[in-house]
Amino acid sequence: MDFTYEQIAKMIDHSLLVPNMTQADLEAGCELALAYDVASVCIMPYYLRRCAEILSGSQVKASTTIGFPHGAHTPAIKRAEAEQALADGCQELDVVANISQVLSNNWGFVQDDLAAVIEVAHAAGQKVKVIFENCYLEEEHKIRLCQICTELQADWVKTSTGYGSSGATIPDLQLMRQHTPETVQVKAAGGIRDLDTILEVRALGVSRVGASKTKPMLDDCRQRLGLDPIAVADSGPSSGY
Known about the structure:
The protein is of the alpha/beta class and 241 residues long. 43% of the residues lie in helices and 15% in strands.
């Protein structure tokens, strides 16, 4: 094996964004993330403060979404969302680019919209992933977004919300890696449901994946590596991830 358990676990942002998840589901999801020692929990904004409390003292980061899922919130609202998330203990913010403005080629608006969130997060010492929602975009849009994210020093470019018409694809991941410097990481989201897919995108230079199938994927990883299983219940309904 050319990977360790930690390398794979620390690629996963455990997604807890399905609208019909109960508080019990969200609590269980946070505990699962802790047990498997993943990279982060990406949780509904209203439960972020509690998530940060549960994860406090661990190496699992608390994260949430901004302008989710369509990116159509006004820049002022996105900024306010980011400020609230940071106040609630957020360490990584996943912000959706304004899809309508991207498709309209209103690049000045798109840049200012993303800058409002990135500036606030970076001033607080936290990180930002910019979600493109590639299923709606042409190649030229994706490339321009990569350029904007590079200029704004975003920490990740991300393929999808997991709730669009499709998720991460190999060609999109290759394109995003090609058009961003090493200082900007790439996150795959949507359709990452087994270990072999994680290994495939890892080979392309992807450093994070959004996933709700965390338990079966990491159980498989541990089994292949000859490690003992982790005894913890899975969490709630599965998402578009």
